[in-house]
Amino acid sequence: MDTEFQLLGPLRVSQRGAEIPLPSVKHRLLLASLLLRPNEAVSAAELLTVLWPDRPPASAAVNLRTYVSGLRQALQPAARGRDRLTAASGGYLLRVEPGERDLDRFEAVVARGRTALSGGQPLQAAADLAVAVGMWRGAPLSDLPLNSPLESRVRALEERRLLAEEDHAAARLAAGTTAADVIERLRAVVDQHPLRQRAWGQLMTALYRIGDVSGALDAFQQVRRALAEHTGLDPGPELLRLHDDILHHRAGADGERPLGRRPTQLPRAVPGFVGRESELAQLDAALAAGAGGPGAVTISTISGMAGIGKTALALRWAHRVADRFPDGQLYLNLRGYDDGEAVDPAEALHSLLEALGVPAGRIPATADARTGLYRSLLATRRMVIVLDNARDTQQVRPLLPGTGHCLVVVTSRDQLHALIAAEQARPLTLNVLTGEESRRMLGAWLGAERIEREPAAVAAVVEAAGHLPLALSIVAARIAAKPTFPLAAFAAELAAGEARLDALADGDVRRVFSWSYHDLSEPAACLFRRLGLHPGPDVTGAVAAALTGWDHAAARSALHELTRRHLVTEHQPGRYTQHDLLRSYARELVGSAEPADVRREALHRLYDHYLHTAFPAARLLQPQWAPVEPVPPLPVSFAAPVADHDEALDWYTAEREVLIRVIRQAADTGFERYAWQIAWAVTTFLAPRGLWQDQAAAQRIAVAAAERAGDRSGQAMANRMLARAEIRLGGHDDAMDRLAAALRLYEQLGDLTGQAQTLHSRTELAYERGRPQEALAYGERALRLHRLAGTPAGEGRTLNAIGYIHATLGEHRRAIEICHEALAIQQEIDDRNGMAATLDSLGLAHAGLGDHGRAAGLYEQSILLFRESADRYHEAETLTRLGDVRAALGEHDAAADAWRRAAQIYDALGDSAADRARQRLDGLHR
């Protein structure tokens, strides 16, 4: 490597070890700005702000070109004949080769160290991370006067250094390094950054290890005081638990526990569990054999046919050993043999990370990145993890911890040979119950006295049920419902005809199911069949009413009968699920017993229920979104109306997984308009929570459904909504293609509003890609179309977007003029959320002119309106800017209050911007 750009300390440029001098501070600021965004066009407006943060001189543009020319000449020896610094897209671009920046080399070594740590190699991790932290020569760019936007980028560099320092400490503690060697470095970190709870926890652990218990407890009091003074908050739950462990001498010797939530997700153990003593002993032995080894993760697999009791055994044992794993329990049903699709590993990781306390906004987009974060969080935890109903090894492997002292239990119909071979999982194959265990299971249901009276009948019932726990529980439920009937009558009924489970090896329990099914009342039998039309995983009473066409009281009565007979389970209050075998059986029955027109009518009512519940709920969640025109409700609709915003949010939270399945099923069963319209509605819930993978999945189905139906309006809408998800997932090229397709369709339809909305999205995409001039061009086109269409709300919001971009380009007076035009329109139509956004843009423009007092007043008005419309995210954004101008006015208490309120909102939303608000607080106190 001939050329080296050094950012991790004072700015340095060298070639073959010889430093290249730079002419002036302005040249150095220019180079730093370009190096922080290598191989990317940096706009002239941003560079002008860096060079002249207060007020650029009239000759600023000419001076910038002069500085660029001087910098190009200074770098020429390092360019090796190439044009390293070039003009591009209204700005300038600096070409940097891989490895030329010390920052890139630092990131590569840190990644290697973190991989080693998560892979159970703490010594290697400590060595790599020591190299990484040793690359820092001081504060980043410490020889330059920093200002926005350069200051924010430098703060991000400092955050990377601190994370590496904490990872280095974690690796050294895990490797058994003498704790005293770790303490000095951690002291330096917490002295400079007193709000970093992870570093404080590591320091407490290190002090405890050397026997300085009072020092560890004093460190806790120090962090508690710092947090109270600077944020008004108490230490997090992990730090509190560590303090309690130290106080009672329970702290372990394996280093830190990552900060986060302590989940307790294990479902309750199955009632009436009997027997399996031998299997429980085998699991105990596997745990004992795997405990205590370096980086030990104990993995046990429980395999067997459907209905044999794999989940019951896993939960029974997990509860029995849970007290050995103080950091909590994770449980996830992977639905590997569900009638619907099995849970994708990426989605499973999203659920597990949320359970571990990672806010949705901080969960990575890719499956590999999620696996890395998941394994990092578990590296020093002791947890029980139950992965239930796995399809195969490929589904499970990304969900396994890389190192640490966790216990993983996997259940599957598959024997998971690859998991046993590659991960040293301990296998346990489950067989049917023994005769004695089966008898005890019936006794748990029916009472010992009833069992002892008719031993021959009990033996006949057990034999007919094939000793299968699922079949026995269904049989027992029916017998228990008729306490005066002799058991011999039930045994005779089961023995009649072909009642025995001839195909038991294949998991065929149809005869037992049919016996229970035929004993149902006609309404309950009808509902059981109709449940086979639902995609799962669970239903409500309102859904039962929609499937049958009955009133809610009749549907609830039938559900209660099915619950009593154990043909459905009320796994949450008001929500019912079925074993996958029972759902398959119901699907067979409805296909054979119900005419096609009856099935289609039931599906129509089902999709009508979801669309006309989802649509008004979507309007409550996002009243500012331009709605689609939904399919008219049926004359008798079974929609479940929601009363307010909170109820709408609860409904979407509960139905999220169901809705994704419903969208797919509606598309596959000929109800394409329902599919794309439900997809539009659910996006009002998914997008604000950063659930971009779900949104992309729903909108891809919607696009295909609308195309099959020849519905151009649906195609345009779904393409536009899919583009929004692709932008957030980083698929900018695909987003451009989708927006182009949407625009063509809207043009064919003559839909001016749709065209304008699509061009507005293009404005956002161009701005995200660092192309503000291109963004302005799209914005102007969108504005003309909104005016032609006569949509004042769209006109006002597009004007605001244009004004905002002008403000970010430093064209503050032009921005003010445009935003006032937007505000007048919004005031006339009472678009209060639009007014809030425009007042925020006006505040940004006035702040750019140095009129901080005026900016503060505008921000205060904006915050009130955002709060009134429950737009918490944008309220937090504006609070952050309010803090900036209060600080510029010297009103430090008011600035701290604004930033603190912003951080609290971001925390509630699970958005990583909370860290930036706290960094402002830290800077203010320093």
UniProtKB/TrEMBL annotation:
Q: Is Transcription included in the keywords of this UniProt record? A: yes
- Portion annotated as DNA-binding: 1-96
Claim: DNA-binding is one of the keywords in the record = yes
- Lineage: superkingdom: Bacteria
Which GO terms are recorded in the biological process aspect for this UniProt protein? phosphorelay signal transduction system; regulation of DNA-templated transcription
* Gene3D superfamilies the UniProt entry points to: P-loop containing nucleotide triphosphate hydrolases, Tetratricopeptide repeat domain, Winged helix-like DNA-binding domain superfamily/Winged helix DNA-binding domain
Q: Which residues form the OmpR/PhoB-type domain?
A: 1-96
Name the Gene Ontology molecular function terms of this record: ADP binding; DNA binding
InterPro entries linked? AfsR-DnrI-RedD_regulator, BTAD, NB-ARC, OmpR/PhoB-type_DNA-bd, P-loop_NTPase, Sig_transdc_resp-reg_C-effctor, TPR-like_helical_dom_sf, TPR_rpt
Q: Which UniProt keywords apply?
A: DNA-binding, Transcription, Transcription regulation
Q: Which family does it belong to?
A: Belongs to the AfsR/DnrI/RedD regulatory family.
Under which name does UniProt file this protein? Answer: SARP family transcriptional regulator
